[in-house]
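Action item from last meeting closed. Structure (179 res):
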């Protein structure tokens, strides 16, 4: 330790600081990694485990596990939230917009530059992506009272980017078409 530090801290504080530094270097950090954990002991030290093969008992465990897939929605005529199941397979229009694994329409809003640039993204497009882009651009231009809108199509990822916040308009349009 430097002499100027000793003068500032005083002799008692300097001695205590040296003790703390030594103790930090000699004591291992407990439970910070597998190296500081206890070593595996002999099997006699551990309690006996009995595997359960009874289906009657296993059902209580299975209900605690999360489901492997999202269950199919129950068919109803009207949902209170306004959600609609997918009806069309896209055979009549030449393109298809697949739902997400949670059965939602894949239309998202991306914001950049502290919220100043908003881009609506339609994902999971299959088939004729250019025909869908033409239809969506017509819907957005109608919402903008005839003003033109900028779009970008990425065929490889199956995405359409539309400049502006038109998430609600496009979701409703895709739901109306059965996607």
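Sequence:
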């Amino acid at each position: 330790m430097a002499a100027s530090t000793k003068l500032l801290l005083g002799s008692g504080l300097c001695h205590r600081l040296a003790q703390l530094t030594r103790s930090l270097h000699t004591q291992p950090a407990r439970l910070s990694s597998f190296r500081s954990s206890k070593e595996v002991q002999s099997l006699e030290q551990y309690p006996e485990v009995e595997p359960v093969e009874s289906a009657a008992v296993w059902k209580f465990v299975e209900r605690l596990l999360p489901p492997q897939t999202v269950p199919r929605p129950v068919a109803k005529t009207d949902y209170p939230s306004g959600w609609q199941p997918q009806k069309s397979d896209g055979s009549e229009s030449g393109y298809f917009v697949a739902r997400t694994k949670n059965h939602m329409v894949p239309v998202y809003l991306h914001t950049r530059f502290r919220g100043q640039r908003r881009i609506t993204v339609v994902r999971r497009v299959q088939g004729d992506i250019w025909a869908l882009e033409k239809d969506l651009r017509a819907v957005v231009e109608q919402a903008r009272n005839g003003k033109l809108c900028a779009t970008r199509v990425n065929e490889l990822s199956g995405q359409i980017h539309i400049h502006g916040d038109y998430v609600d308009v496009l979701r409703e349009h895709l739901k109306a078409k059965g996607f």
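Note appended to the action item: The radius of gyration is 31 Å.
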